[in-house]
Amino acid sequence: MLRLRAFRATNEKVVKIAVHPTHPWLVTADASDHVSVWNWEHRQVIYELKAGGVDERRLVGAKLEKLAEGEHEPKGKPTEAMRGGSVKQVNFFDDDVRFWQLWRNRSAAAESPSAVNHLTSAFASPAPSTKGRHFLVICCENKAIFLDLVTMRGRDVPKQELDNRSLLCMEFLSRSAASDSPLVAFGGSDGVIRVLSMMTWKLVRRYTGGHKGSINCLMTFMASSGEALLVSGGSDGLLVLWSADHGQDSRELVPKLSLKAHDGGVLAVELSRVIGGAPQLITIGADKTLAIWDTISFKELRRIKPVPRQACHSVASWCHPRAPNLNILTCVKDSFIWAIEHPTYSALTRPLCDLSSLVPPQVVAPNKKLRVYCMVAHPLQPHLVATGTNVGIIISEFDARSLPPISPLATPPGSREHSAVYVVGRELKLLSFQLSNTPNPSLGNNASLSEAGRLKGDSIETLHVKQIRKHISTPVPHDSYSILSVSCSGKYVAIVWPDIPYFSIYKVSDWSIVDSGSARLLAWDTCRDRFAILESALPPRMPIIPKGSSSKKAKEAAAAAAQAAAAATAASANVQVRILLDDGTSNILMRSIGSRSEPVIGLHGGALLGVAYRTSRRIGPGAATAISTIQSMPLSGFGSSGSFSTFDDGFSQRSPSEAATQNFQLFSWETFEPVGGLLPQPEWTAWDQTVEYCAFAYQQYLVISSLRPQYRYLGDVAIPYATGAVWQRRQLFVATPTTIECVFVDAGVAPIDIETRKMKEEMKIKEAQARAVAEHGELALITVDGPQNTASQERTSLRPPMLQVVRLASFQHAPSVPPFLSLPKQSKVDGDDSFMPKEMEERKYNEIAVGGGGVSVAVTRFPNEQKRPVGPLIIVGVRDGVLWLIDRYMCAHALSLSHPGIRCRCLAAYGDAVSAVKWAIRLGREHHDDLAQFMLGMGYATEALHLPGISKRLEFDLAMKSNDLKRALQCLLMMSNSRDIGQDGTGLDLNDILNLTAKKENMVEAVQGIVKYAKEFLDIIDAADATAQADIAREALKRLATAGSVKGALEGNELRGLALRLANHGELTRLSGLVNNLISLGLGREAAFAAAVLGDNALMEKAWQDTGMLAEAVLHAHAHGRPTLKNLVEAWNKMLQKEVENTPSAKTDATAAFLASLEEPKFTSLSEAGKKPAIEILPPGMSALSASITIQKKNAPATLNSQQSQQQPNKPLALEAPPSTEPAATTPSTEQVPSAPPSSAPPSSEASEPASDDKAPNSSEKNPDKADLEGSKPETTASNTEAPDTTQPDAVPPAVSPETEAPQNDNEETNTTNNVAKNDLLI
Fold first, then answer.
1. Residues 3, 358: contact at Cβ < 8 Å?
2. What was the pLDDT predicted at 685?
3. Looking at residue 1255, what is its pLDDT?
């Protein structure tokens, strides 16, 4: 239940302590007057100061500041050099402190039945006064120190400026007028209260005549009439009331009321808020008593002695749902925090916790006992209690996840009045709440804009709420901690008292009890009115350990007893499922779920039942002491919550390895069988009503998953310490101890979803076919598939899941101006509400922009964070367009969702994308892109296209996603400025000739635009081709081809894609203009392909030749009988010769050339140069380059006539067959061989070119004699080169090296002419 949140060890005892309401800051003063500010969340000391004496660092800093500002050092002693004396009080002061002080006073006064109306309505916060600065205020005996924690500048106010009286206490006065400067009141040693202005640093008022001795404590509060009051307690035992509502003057004010409170002096005073009643004052005195006073009649309600023979020195008002009857915390000089139960009735004092069991054991010396000297409860997070001790600062956390005992009920359709049921004491009550005087929730009313547009800043309740509490006649059997929950139909409400343990089910219509019994845990099904309970026997009460017996044996005995009791209780507990029928009866569906032997520690309801099991763990002596202490309290408002809370016992921290223990199992409500494997245990679960989404909460994050068409993990959301959440379609509203968050969720479309959907459709079809066969026989399977079936199948585009978090409310006050600016100069002395500083006027008008037609437009993306209600909250959900919350005081609060940035998102998440687009006109157009991206993530690309302010780039993407290619093309033409480019004109008229210069400039801009969006043009062409929208593809092709015709405009891959698409669309004219650009980029294959589509052989050869692909050019020329064959072969052989000689093609410097020349073989004479012949690689059947090239036809005679090949140059010629050395090859080779198409040239050249390169140098080096033989007889080598059988069209002719040809040349040298004749005959 109670665990250590933070600890900081100190050498001195801590005697003064204060906590900041919104930041994790703690300021303390120790016995030696050292003041330190500690960030307890990050465990860092922010600032340290020696306040009692003279702090040398501050003194030096103040002198340097004055020198930097040009001031001469004064003759007198600086205030920083004055000794402060003993520290009497420390506190923070900024806009947050001021706001929450006023909120506490007003909300406490509004609980009174006689409260005036303006207190119950929404109130405006005070005007920002500290302008983003955070003051640390230290009240010392001789001076007051004001230190700005932002700029680290300070100001000391000596007691000489406050009538030279010692300062003993202080309090900040709440002023609501915008012109008022911050005021701080100091209680003096002479019984006079002096008020100091923090703007002029002058004394502005005195309160005199109230006390005869010194003043020990000051506090402001508000009466139920709305009057601001100041109460002071003095050493004379008097409690004096003063009016704090006067204007800024220097008159001496007399007290309103004075009464005797304590004998021996009043030590402290505290304000206590009472549900449904006027606030109360709590005072503690030197007479060791605690008194409670009514603030209407100012009569004493109760006086008690909390701890016998010991005086209380700190008191705090407390209201925690885990301990509903404990309202006051106090401490004396021992190791306990004491709690007072029912202060005005039984007033039983019980130890809340023993701090010595929380701190590390090595901190406390063996012969030293822990003592508490001061204590404060966090004003906004009641589960945090900070204490100052003789060993350090202890921040303890008291069950942060427990929620108020309240459950919202279903609202009847058409009704604007909502209701919730709650438990107070032993009474069941009904809370009715609704919006009152609601303005039209449109932005035509500026009041529903963000709070920044208002005069008085943000307000805690942005909307007026009317609420009524009614009593229900049905009694409640217990007054301890209770948990309320409602069934899915809203007909039944369950109340569980886990400390008793007991549960009751009430029927909402007449509040009759339907079912009851012994159970610690209860969980509802979200689909039907059935629930699971954990039945358990009553645990045996353990004797409390006496205060003095802290021996090791006693603690070990308590640990053993606690373990035995927990084991006995767990052994008798089982999970049982019951169902509530329509007639109101309860029936048991399943006696016991699960076969695991571990005890159950948690039940989580939802579409599936979650059961958490306890892992084996030893209970430490300290935890056992706390368990036995609390269990021994008879119905004290809290008991052993260990079996209920989701961590094992709630007393000790979990280790990280233990937190990830997989001990959570999901079960089906229908079959009661396990679903899936074990998971890490969540702190709570939230399931969507439509069973589409679920959220599992862990300590640092939320895990969100989709459930349909099958379970799929979507992602984690980093929202730590979440206490509860409610689904609203695709919106998850989450409450944490400090914020309210909204998570927008969409599962997107994953491939597994499409597969699952297809499988389900196939299963449906098979089931339908099976039914048809059963009814009508096999003839029922005969179907006729029409063409419309394939057309109706649309492509389902994949979409990633989307999770977006928006913070709706928090405690912090947004700083209005940067902290380095000074306070604004005021033009009026007397503050009235009509005064508005110039800065606020400008801010108001800057936040609101008026669009066309007088519609107010919000210029911010999201609204400013609203103020979160204090303490643990129950989220009711969204009703009437606002988010309803209920706090621990059973008050309903409404958070506005009317800002268009939130409203549009909520509507889109709810499924009404059309209304979201309509609301978007109230949002600044600069935020439409952000909203469109959100709608795209939600799956509303088509609707997002109607947003008026989206950029053209995003409009193009949305149009492509929604398959509106016409609009996408229009956006693309506008973005690329190419609307007038690529038009098919008939010719130039006179005006066109005169405007050529302007057209040329437009053309350059258009080409640049097209090049910038070339990828988008290709995408839209492909999308248009896929959907048979040829006109759109043609328009895009025109523009892209225009840019492609400009040399160097498009990159290689873009030109390649353009060429293929032009060929696909038959745009031959534009394709011809593209070939030269392809050649210039070295894309020989694409250029040759384009030329082949155009049917231009010369252009094809040029493409290959200019890009260095000579092998393809030679093969093509030979296959088609081109006259350029000889030139191509010569060029190819020259290129190969260069590669063989290793001559660098690029220019090299002189050093590289010299080093290369050393490596080359030297020739001693010119006669040796002939030993290095040129290597010729020729097509099959071609003679040497020195001879004339002869091309033979099929039926030509065996004579080689070079003139015949030149008579018909354009006729495609046949490829010659290879010489056959085997007789078996003559039969298949008689078949006719078709001419090789141009597209087959590249593969063959790729295979032949590298092989010839590799073989050529080897042949010249290893066998120079054979190389000489080849050089002297080129004709024979050319005519006898082997080639594969050309009857196989897919065969690639291998490259044959001269080494393998040499023996064949020696053997068949004399048969050259015979082979040529045979070849002619075979062809």
1. yes
2. 95
3. 40
